[in-house]
Amino acid sequence: MATVHRGFDGVRIEGTQYSVWVHPLSEWREPGDATLSIGVDAKSPAWDDWARLTHDVPHYFAASDVDLATTAAGDELRCLRASSADTPAYRPGFVLTLEPGMRVFLETELPRVEQVTHVAATLRAAVEPHLGRTLAQYASTTVQPHERSALVAVASRVVLLGNSPAEAIAYAVLLHDHRWAFSDAWDDPQYAELGAALRRPEVLALLAESATASASHAV
To answer: Could you tell me the keywords of this UniProt record (predicted)?
Structure first.
């Protein structure tokens, strides 16, 4: 029996022997860019725990790179992405024959996790002008990596967990000392600028709109 679990801002779909994890990405910018990080673990008989199978193959994919196919051997998850625009016929990745029950979860969760990626990108574009920073040479954004991860966490809580904008911000990032990075009373200094930008009325309205859209798609 397959089960689905939330984790790392995405989902993990566990079967008896294999587990597929699907995570959103923080770098999406335009159509064709990867929107999903997907990989496979297998249950090791040696120590009764999960071991990563896809550590040495690409695991960043766009929706068009992912296919759920029906074969004589059963349902398959095919994740294959061209590594270069100059060689589109060569698509490295992986293929997994799914265990019973896994396909239906993937059909539901793949588009939801991809939506997290898109909402995070929309948030990034919305907050960046309010950070007041100068773009460094060769950089694509002034939003720092830890801030981009926080935006993915906020988007994930809205899309996957159905949190309100305020809840999504408040519980997005748990620091190493078990404090929340964002608080109405006090934001951690490394997240303070982002927290102020996230609480702007137009950004909160954007989050509320995303929450409404996610709820309507879930019905």
So the answer is: Plasmid
